[in-house]
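retry 2 of 3: previous attempt timed out while embedding 2-acetamido-2-deoxy-beta-D-glucopyranose. Reduced batch size to 1 and resubmitted. Inputs unchanged:
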Amino acid sequence: MRFLKFNFLYLFLLSLLYNKLFALEENDELVEATDFKVANGKARTPFPDWLKRITGLYQWPGLDPPYIPLDFIDLSKIPDFGPYSLGFCANVPREACSFDCHGCMGHDEIFTCRKLSQTFDDGPTPATLRLLDSLDHETTFFNLGVNIVEHPDIYHRIQDDGHLIGSHTWSHRYLPALSNKEIIAQIEWGIWAMNATGHHIPKWWRPPYGGIDNRVRHITRLFGLQAVVWNHDTLDWKFASGDPSVSLEEILGRVHDWNRDKTGLILEHDSKETTVDIALRVKDIIGEDQLTVAECAGGNDYIREYD
Ligand SMILES: *[C@@H]1O[C@H](CO)[C@@H](O)[C@H](O)[C@H]1NC(C)=O
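retry 2 succeeded.
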């Protein structure tokens, strides 16, 4: 399981489709990049005083947030390779230990679980609510900063229901394609969105598109973050895009297969009504005897929680 095989073309197409499918609208609603604002003024989490002090800003940024230097980060120590684009793995050295290119993982990364468990990326969205209504067990959400500050009420519901929340970065960029400063910005703003909205600092994070290598790893470990990938992909996102090559029967058939040995970590999304529909069917198959990622790994839920 250490070396999973990926189809690069498929990853590339995924990157092209992603913004169309998953609520990240990068369009003319966005104000100019120099005027860091969330698209269409949608942010509803107040921009707190402590964040004004740290950043010198007074409002939430857009999809490409500004890099804010932090004293525990020494840029000169970050491994020097990349950047490279999603799906362009040919020149990525093995020493990079890329998960999406080579299935390579760090010693501290989580990819499976002793009980077969669902995990949900890309929320919170209005579709998340129907999922929460149906869950009687605690599960794991990897939330996007831009969606957190847009839907603080839904974020609070996830918290109140006792689920584990990890970071999925600020705006779902493929991190290996970014500069060191841009990667840091994606991570820090993702954390700040959680802290400003939910008063806690995440311990767990999931790289968008599974895009993690030793450069990304070096940076995220400085924040005390542990990465979570997966060993089962429902392809719910592909089904939701209307791709006729993925049928619901096929998806549920795969889940029945995974359910035979009852172990593993399943990648799903709470970004659309369609993917939530699938999540409910998957839950009906494997039942409520599932674990959060922290329970799978025997670790803390958060690095720190504030009152
Ligand atoms: C988290 O929020 C608290 C206030 O609730 C603040 O004092 C602290 O500096 C913040 N820390 C980070 C890392 O965001």
